[in-house]
Design goal:
It contains 19 helices and eleven strands. Bound molecules: glutamic acid.
């Protein structure tokens, strides 16, 4: 398929489309910022759409957290689940009927087909492909079925998915604003499931249908989606719709230049909030990821960014998320605050009424004078703790440092599975790990206490962790894991 000859000018409408599957990610803010800047510059609209069709991965509180985090950064959208708009609803789980209807249309046109293969058959096919060292993918078994016959089976209620009929040979060109023409061979692209057997759409179908219905003119998203774009181009063609312009932004990277990941770099926006970064500094920092203002200017507001924004200044190499750089920028922003404003941001951070009220239940029985308060709670107001002086204590009898490190990593994973970060759940997960390893709880609890608070005596461990919050606990326990894991 050749790329469209030219993209006709249409009103600028762009979107960010996060899936509510976890903590609010810096990558979402990064993409939201560029969408928002482009919309503002062109007098267009910026839409927030929640892509919550993957029911097994969606998490109840994630959507609200994503919106709160984007708002904390100062980002605003013109249309979205909370503010409404002409194309409501903006939550895909409320649009299911639309996707099913569009899948049906594609089947009618012969551009998609019913697939009755069950998990068992698909697994067997995969197995065989692996054994024969072939490319993994659906073998198109049901594509050969007689159309009337498969329509009858589907109508009779036989479980099925709907798959996209991808061309068997030839190539497709994705015209990307930043990369030029990127060619893909159809032979590398699977007959993608569009509608699952539970009637819910996959990302590809829902994303394209909504981008079209919401009149999205430019799809500005992260580079990792470019390999999905051929399927999207094919869907636009199959529906007979004009495709948006494609703009795939360079990825955010860990220091080692791998794609940013929470194992190597804090990725939750809430971490940066809790660690005491200013939203304006974080937003400014994200603007520098892959884009340059011009000259060697590094500090600027979103409004100034909008004034000079252009795609030409995006560089494609990928951008290392360098926390030292962010810290440097944050320092500039702090220096810019006058004394009253600095007091205000400290109050809004953890020193205001709501922050202190969370601490008082933990310390009331432990302080004799008010002046004991700060020494008793200092670890709530810092980021990193120094474990070197505690090295002798940070151990479990007869357990190697390596094993302890591994256990901490497992523990962090089990905390990830919890809904929220409440004391009861944390305690349960920690006790379960002790049981599984035959460790005395008092030993692991002490290691955790030292890791989280830096001291042997503290308010009750799990209540302390709950109040300290997921982000700072996770950060410290990761550091602790690295510290103990290095030892024999
Ligand atoms: N729901 C996808 C995400 O989680 C959206 C990707 C896109 O922008 O098309 O990032």
């Amino acid at each position: 398929m050749a790329p469209e000859a030219s993209v006709t000018a249409r009103p600028v409408r762009v979107r960010v489309a996060p899936s509510p599957t976890g903590d609010p990610h810096v990558g979402t803010a990064y993409i939201a910022l560029f969408n928002s800047a482009f919309a503002r510059q062109n007098g267009g609209a910026f839409v927030l759409r929640i892509e919550d069709t993957d029911r097994s991965r969606s998490r109840a509180d994630s959507e609200a957290q994503i919106m709160a985090a984007l708002r904390w950064l100062g980002l605003r959208w013109d249309e979205g689940p909370d503010v409404g708009g002409p194309h409501a609803p903006y939550r895909q789980s409320e649009r299911s009927a639309l996707y099913a209807e569009h899948a049906r249309l594609l089947v009618e046109r012969g551009r998609a087909y019913h697939c009755f293969c069950g998990e068992e058959r698909l697994a067997a096919v995969r197995q065989q492909q692996k054994a024969e060292k072939q490319r993994l993918g659906y073998d198109r078994h049901c594509r050969a079925l007689d159309r009337a016959e498969s329509a009858r089976r589907a109508a009779a209620g036989e479980p099925h998915t709907v798959r996209l009929a991808v061309p068997l040979d030839g190539t497709v060109v994705v015209r990307d604003r930043l990369r030029g023409d990127v060619e893909f061979a159809w032979s590398q692209i699977d007959d993608q499931v569009l509608l699952k057997s539970d009637g819910f759409p996959t990302y590809h179908l829902a994303n394209v249908v909504d981008d079209h219905l919401m009149e999205i003119s430019h799809v500005i998203r992260a580079e990792e989606w470019i390999s999905s774009t051929p399927k999207h181009v094919l869907l636009y063609d199959a529906f007979g719709w004009e495709a948006p312009e494609w703009i795939h932004m360079p990825l955010l990277l860990n220091q080692d230049r791998s794609k940013i990941s929470k194992r190597k770099n804090p990725v939750s926006i809430n971490f940066y909030r809790d660690a005491g970064f200013l939203p304006a500094a974080l937003l400014n920092f994200l603007a520098l990821m892959g884009w340059s203002f011009g000259g060697d200017r590094e500090k600027f507001t979103p409004e100034e960014m909008v004034e000079v924004f252009s795609w030409e200044k995006v560089s494609l190499g990928g951008s290392v998320f360098n926390i030292d750089k962010l810290r440097w920028l944050n320092e500039q922003y702090i220096h810019d605050l006058d004394h009253d404003a600095l007091a205000d941001v400290l109050l809004a951070w953890r020193l205001g009424q709501s922050g202190l009220r969370r601490l008082t239940p933990l310390v009331r029985e432990r302080i004799k004078t008010l002046s004991d308060f700060i020494p008793c709670t200092d670890f709530f107001f810092s980021l990193e703790l120094d474990y070197a002086p505690l090295a002798g204590e940070l151990a479990i009898p007869d357990v190697s440092g390596k094993d302890l490190g591994r256990a901490l990593s497992e523990l962090l994973d089990s905390y990830e599975q919890l809904d929220g970060f409440a004391a009861a759940g944390l305690e349960q997960a920690t006790r379960a790990l002790c049981d599984a390893r035959g460790w005395k709880t008092k030993h692991l609890f002490m290691v955790l206490r030292l890791g989280v608070t830096g001291r042997k005596a503290s308010p009750p461990l799990f209540d302390t962790m709950e109040v300290l919050g997921k982000e700072l606990c996770r950060f410290r326990l990761r550091r602790l894991m690295e510290f103990v894991g290095q030892r024999k």
